Amino acid sequence: MAQSGEIVFEGVSKSFTDGSIPAVNGVSFRVAAGNMVVLLGPSGCGKTTLLKMVNRLYDPTEGKIWLGGQEIHTLPVNELRRHIGYVIQQVGLFPHMTIRKNIAVVPRLLGWDDQKIDARVEELLDLIGLPTSYLSRFPRQLSGGEQQRVGLARALAADPSILLMDEPFAAVDAINRERLQGELLGLHCKLAKTILFVTHDVEEAFRLADKIIVMRAGKVVQYGTPIEIVTHPADAFVEDLVGSNNLLRRLSLVNVQSILKAREEMGIPAVLPEADAEETAVLRPEDDLRSALSLLLSSGRDTLRVENASGIPLGEVGFSDLRSMLFAAPSSKKKNCQ
Ligand SMILES: Nc1ncnc2c1ncn2[C@@H]1O[C@H](COP(=O)(O)OP(=O)(O)OP(=O)(O)O)[C@@H](O)[C@H]1O
Ligand SMILES: [Mg+2]
User: Fold this and answer.
1) Cα of 43 to ligand 1 centre, how many Å?
2) How does strand 36-40 pair with strand 62-67?
3) TM segments (predicted)?
4) Nearest CA owner, ligand 1 atom 18
5) Pairing of strands 36-40, 211-216
6) Which ligand is nearest to the CA of 45?
7) For residues 62 and 224, is the Cβ–Cβ distance under 8 A?
8) Across-strand partners of 190?
9) Which of 140, 210, 148 is nearest to 177 (CA)?
10) Domains of the chain (ranges plus CATH)?
């Protein structure tokens, strides 16, 4: 299988019983390698069914799926799954196995030697930020959030090019959920994997996604960047989802990074202002635009510098960006599927 993590769905449908309305209905989209794409939609709209077709837990009734340029049925299923990490909602750690054994499940299946497995397990533990003393514990001796991290480490063990994550943080409390989202964003930057992430939490989707696929009743309603979805919702359903009549809510869904990325995609060079002595307020890429607005208002400036956590300037964001976000001219309400 080509190592590239591109995912392509072409006219994919899945019915569970003959003649019933398909759970996934004529879905086509393309996820570029290295992108984090979030599937967002209400309960029962077909998100899990769609995800399970990628690693062939379900087979489509119609249509085709390609990973890295290869149609998935042309590969032996074990070979296919070796390139795909899968994190499920209930974590699914094996309760009678230690954390070490849980993380090592796939490498062991692949016949790695003990030394290589031990080195990989310790590397992953470091990546998810848990101490090595946890390796001899059992899942029940970990908090829900810690178990989720181990689930992620297990999915990453054989270094897959694609990660499928089905509501991985749904059972975690709000504070830990936000922390895990931040960690996932950090890991995504570091590891550059293609991630398909399922949620029905609108805030979570907008926080994590390079692009969002909005689903409803088995169909893709809209596929676009967070900015595109907030500024040009495809229909009344998406409008309700993003609170089109509520300006502050719309601002809270989009972060500073999305503005910088959109400019980059349009070929607009970043302005990297020098720090000036009076400047106290700076924005971080992960700040949402509602916080940016409040900082702009309190600083009395028209624009603010954006810096990463190491103090490296990334550009600037100002009132004009917020205005164009909120008052973008509505485009034709065509579907934005690729
Ligand atoms: N194994 C199955 N057999 C029959 N019907 C199924 C099966 N799995 C899912 N369905 C049906 O397919 C539809 C989509 O289910 P799916 O699990 O994909 O939804 P979902 O979007 O993941 O929902 P949730 O957010 O609640 O997890 C539902 O109507 C469900 O009842
Ligand atoms: Mg589901």
Assistant:
1) 8
2) unpaired
3) none
4) 46
5) parallel
6) 1
7) no
8) none
9) 148
10) 7-242 (3.40.50.300), 247-326 (3.90.1280.20)
Listed residues: CB within 5 A of ion ligand 2: 48
Which protein residue has the closest C-alpha to ligand 1 atom 16? 46
- DSSP 3-state of 223: strand
Q: How far apart are CA 166 and CA 154, in angstroms?
A: 15
- The percent of the chain in helix, strand and coil, each rounded to the nearest 5, is 40, 20, 40
Distance CA 102, CA 104 (A): 5
pLDDT in tens, 93-134: 899 999 999 999 888 888 899 999 999 999 888 888 889 999
Q: Please say if the pLDDT value at position 195 is more than 70.
A: yes
**Is a pLDDT exceeding 50 seen at residue 337?**
no
pLDDT per residue over 250-300, tens digit each? 889 999 999 998 888 888 877 777 766 666 789 999 999 999 999 988 888
For residue 177, give the H/E element and its range.
Answer: helix 174-191
